[in-house]
Amino acid sequence: MLQVDLRWLLDVQELASPEDLTVRDYSALQAAVARHRVNTAQLGHDADPAWCAAALMHTIVLLRPLPVRNNLYACMATAAYMAAAEEGIDPPYGALVELARDVADGTSDVFAAAGRIRSWRI
User: Is there a contact between 41 and 110 (Cβ–Cβ < 8 Å)?
Assistant: First the structure.
């Protein structure tokens, strides 16, 4: 299973916000790193790349490490993680942004988010 680190997330953040947007809360990024590394999020569930990507998205959206554009950052981290894990995704237009909104408003938990990401694999 692909495991990313803080440096990787900072590289993605630079792509998401090239105008030198300062990270507000590095502990939120460390939480995302730690969370996506969990092998068993619940009994009977083994982590796969879609779950790891969803864990990154869920944590970034909810903990808001940047002063602005956290949903955009979470979407970019999700797509970048899946590509790096060699499981590309092709979501319908706007679906990734909609997923980030659903996470933000509480209508999608990490498991539901992983299911949607899995459905977009190519």
Answer: yes
Topology of the domain comprising 6-119: Four Helix Bundle (Hemerythrin (Met), subunit A) (1.20.120)
Rounded distance, CA 59 to CA 91, Å? 20
Beta bridge partners of 89: 121
Query: How far apart, in whole angstroms, are the C-alpha atoms of residue 79 and residue 10?
Result: 15
- pLDDT single digits (tens) 60-97: 999 999 998 999 999 999 999 999 999 999 999 999 99
* Residue 117 parent element (H or E): helix 110-119
Task: Output the CA–CA distances (angstroms, integers) from residue 98 to 6, 87, 92, in the order listed.
Answer: 26, 20, 10
Separation between Cα atoms, residue 59 and residue 106, nearest integer Å: 12
